[in-house]
Design a protein that fits this description.
Layout: H1 3-7, E1 18-24, E2 27-33, E3 37-43, H2 49-59, E4 66-70, H3 85-88
Parallel strand pairs: 1-4
Antiparallel strand pairs: 1-2, 2-3
């Protein structure tokens, strides 16, 4: 099960607070925006992330908050689905090779 799927269902839409989470190798950084601003960091191992997140939700009453989640680079992949426009155009000059020019000066 992926990290994103394991957090699914912990937050429900409809509350005015907004929480931002950054999943880091050493813990979870978070910030709540609503009536007041409240930042924090919980140190935990990757195996304890779910428990740490549940603790943050419970302690700060974040159930129902809209959530933005930032994953570490090793938790996702990017796949390009369409060919870049510059390569799709026949005869494009976007990627012309440039020959270095050397000049000698006497002195």
């Amino acid at each position: 099960m992926s990290l994103a799927q394991s957090f699914k269902g912990l937050f429900n839409a409809g509350k005015k607070d907004r929480v931002s989470l950054e999943i880091r190798p050493d813990g979870i950084a978070w910030s709540r925006r609503g009536k007041d601003m409240l930042p924090g960091f919980v140190e935990c191992t990757p195996a304890r992330r779910r428990e740490a997140l549940l603790g943050i939700i419970s302690e700060h009453r974040l159930t129902g908050a809209e959530t933005t989640l930032v994953l570490p680079l090793d938790q996702y992949q990017v796949f390009q689905l369409e060919r870049p426009e510059a390569l799709a155009v026949a005869g494009t000059t976007a990627f012309k090779s440039v020959q270095p020019q050397c000049s000698s000066t006497s002195g």
